[in-house]
Amino acid sequence: MFKRFGPPALVTLLVVATAIAFAVTEHLKLEPVPITSTRVTKQFSPICRCDTSKARIAFSLRRSERVTLLIVGPKGGATRRLIDSEDEPSGPLHVIWDGRDNSGQLAPNGNYHVSVYLANERLWIPLPNVIQLDTQPPKLSSISVSPHTISPDGDHNKDALHVSYRLNERARILLFVDGKLAETTRNRAAKPGRFDWKGVLEGSLLTGWHNLTLRAVDLVGNESVATAPPIPVRVRILSLRPKLVHVTAGRSFRLTISTDRVSVRWRFNGQIGPATSSSLELQAPSTPGRYRAIVRSGPYRASTLVIVR
To answer: Which residue, of 63, 74, 210, 268, is most buried by count of CB atoms within 10 Å of its CB?
Structure first.
């Protein structure tokens, strides 16, 4: 009997066992996960004094739980215990890590993970997200500018200062003029690059000599030191020298024009004309008095007060 009916019975038992295992597996698949809606900061710098100075960890509990939450270091050990076996209600849970370990010291740079223990489930859940702690400032090198004298008067000749640089990581570049922030670029790639400055500071066009320095700020707010030494540059639009002339009636006098335009227009004592060099010779009127010599270059003008005796 055993030899006759044993194999069919064994087959039946195997089929039943397989069905039970399949049913258990399907039930486990239908069991909802205890943690959902995970959001974790990807990068931060705890020393930057900015919006990215803390790592934010958020998720939602499907049911009330006794929770322990650990920050796990690059070598696998627990760096910081942010929640220590505390009862938490179902729903959203938000935690902030300031980048320090359990002793209050700043944790070293590296990649960190979050591990959550649910006591009721007796289950450790490592969150898949990686937190990068980065306190290393970017490096800005190979700084050069050209030309050292610009004239942003709209004639397409030396209208802007070209700043060349090299970055070692993705970052914004800050341009300071005489210690004041004048220009901020968008995030630039970790490679050589260039941007322009048109001589504007706080909404106003500068003139004269000024000192430029640069800084770089990476994606998490780490800021490099200012480049040194400062780079002297000159912003020249249009000038007329001297600003005051005393001249005898009927005598000629000479003015110096500073511009990079090939030609400018002048007006004096009802007369007008072009000037194609840096020197302008005019004749004083025969009647004593106060007159104004005016030179125009595109949208800009300069003037000299002429006192005729």
So the answer is: 268
